[in-house]
C-alpha cells in the first residue's frame, strides 16, 4: 500500500495542466469545499476552520467547511473520494481516516492509496499521557515502575475499539513491557470522565482538550508525545527524551488536506503552496498554538510519505495486538 500511495501522488494526475486550464479557466474561480469527516466542535473541525480561513486569504475564494460525520470518518472521506477531481472539493485527513480505517474496515468503501491524493500536511497535535491523581506516581519513571510491579492492575480508557487511543495503548504495552487493561468507551468525553472519576487510572488525550483538566488538578500529566517540550508545560518531558522515540512518534496526531484522485497536478501544487503561505501567517500560527498544534507544511510527496509510514506502523500494532472491531 505504501508504494501505491506514493505512486498516486506522482502518477495519478492524468489530466494535463494545460487542458485543465483551457477547460476550466484560472484556478480557483469558485468557492472550495472542505469536507470534515467528523462532527462540529471537535479538534479536527476547529483545526479545519482555522486552516480554511487561512486558505481564503491565499486563494481569494471562499473555503466552505462541510461536516460529514459518521462511521469513524468513513462517510466524509468517502464523499471526498467520490467528488469531481477539479480542486473544488478537499478533505480533512487524519491519522484515523488515512492510516487506521483502511486497516480495520478494509478498502471496499474508501481506498486512500487509490482514491485520494495528499495535498499538504497541515499540523501536528501532541498527545499528553495522564493518570488519575490517586495513581501512586508523580512522574514517568514512577509510573513505569508501578505498572511493571502490578501487571493487569490498572486500566486505560479509550474512545472505542480501534481508536487511536486503543492503538497507542497497545503500542505502550508492547514498548514499555507492561500490561494495562483496555476499557473502550463511546467517545473521548466519557473516557475522560472515567479517568477523572477513577474508573480507569491511565489516560491520554490531545493537549488542547487535556490542558484544562491538568491545570484543574483533575488529571496528572506524566509525559507528552511531541517533537519538543510544550511551551505551556515546559517541565513535562517527551517520550523521546524518556527513551521511547517510536512511542513518541506514534502518539503525535497529524492532520492534512487531501483531494480526489485525478485532481490536476497544477491544482494540487497551487493548493499546496497556498497552505504553505497560510501556515507562515503569524495569525494562523497563533490560532494553531491555542490548540496545541504545530504547523507542518511541506510537499505533497512528503505528506504521502508520512501517511505511508504511519500506516505501516499502525498495521504492525494492529496485527501484533490482534485488534479487531468486533472485540
UniProtKB/TrEMBL annotation:
Keywords: Signal. Gene3D superfamilies: Bordetella uptake gene, domain 1, Periplasmic binding protein-like II. InterPro entries: BUG, Bug_dom1. It holds the Pfam family TctC. The keyword Signal applies. The keyword DNA repair does not apply. Residues 1-21 form the signal peptide. PANTHER family: BLR1237 PROTEIN, TRICARBOXYLATE-BINDING PROTEIN. Belongs to the UPF0065 (bug) family. This is Tripartite tricarboxylate transporter substrate binding protein BugE. It comes from Achromobacter pestifer. The lineage of its organism: Bacteria, Pseudomonadati, Pseudomonadota, Betaproteobacteria, Burkholderiales.
Amino acid at each position: 500500500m505504501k508504494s501505491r500511495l506514493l505512486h498516486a501522488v506522482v502518477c495519478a494526475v492524468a489530466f494535463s495542466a494545460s487542458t485543465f486550464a483551457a477547460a476550466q479557466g484560472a484556478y480557483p474561480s469558485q468557492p472550495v469545499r472542505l469536507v470534515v469527516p467528523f462532527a462540529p466542535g471537535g479538534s479536527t473541525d476547529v483545526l479545519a476552520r482555522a486552516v480554511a480561513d487561512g486558505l481564503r486569504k491565499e486563494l481569494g475564494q471562499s473555503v466552505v467547511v462541510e461536516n460529514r460525520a459518521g462511521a469513524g470518518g468513513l462517510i466524509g472521506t468517502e464523499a471526498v473520494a467520490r467528488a469531481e477531481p477539479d480542486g473544488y472539493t478537499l478533505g480533512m485527513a487524519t491519522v484515523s481516516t488515512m492510516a487506521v480505517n483502511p486497516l480495520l474496515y478494509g478498502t471496499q468503501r474508501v481506498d486512500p492509496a487509490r482514491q485520494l491524493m495528499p495535498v499538504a500536511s497541515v499540523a501536528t497535535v501532541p498527545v499528553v499521557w495522564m493518570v488519575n491523581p490517586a495513581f501512586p506516581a508523580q512522574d514517568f519513571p514512577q509510573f513505569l515502575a508501578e505498572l511493571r510491579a502490578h501487571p493487569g492492575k490498572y486500566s486505560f480508557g479509550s474512545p472505542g475499539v480501534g481508536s487511536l487511543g486503543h492503538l497507542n495503548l497497545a503500542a505502550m504495552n508492547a514498548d514499555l513491557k507492561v500490561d494495562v487493561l483496555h476499557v473502550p468507551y463511546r467517545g473521548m468525553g466519557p473516557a475522560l470522565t472515567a479517568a477523572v472519576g477513577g474508573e480507569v487510572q491511565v489516560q491520554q488525550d490531545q493537549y488542547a482538550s487535556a490542558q484544562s483538566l491538568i491545570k484543574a488538578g483533575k488529571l496528572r500529566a506524566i509525559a507528552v508525545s511531541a517533537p519538543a517540550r510544550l511551551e505551556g508545560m515546559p517541565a513535562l518531558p517527551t517520550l523521546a527524551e524518556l527513551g521511547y522515540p517510536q512511542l513518541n512518534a506514534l502518539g503525535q496526531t497529524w492532520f492534512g488536506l487531501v483531494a480526489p484522485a485525478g485532481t490536476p497536478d497544477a491544482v494540487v501544487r497551487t493548493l499546496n503552496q497556498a497552505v504553505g503561505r497560510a501556515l507562515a501567517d503569524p495569525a494562523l500560527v497563533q490560532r494553531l498554538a491555542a490548540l496545541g498544534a504545530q504547523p507542518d507544511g511541506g510537499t505533497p510527496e512528503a505528506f504521502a510519505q508520512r501517511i505511508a509510514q504511519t500506516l505501516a506502523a499502525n498495521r504492525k500494532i494492529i496485527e501484533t495486538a490482534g485488534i479487531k472491531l468486533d472485540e
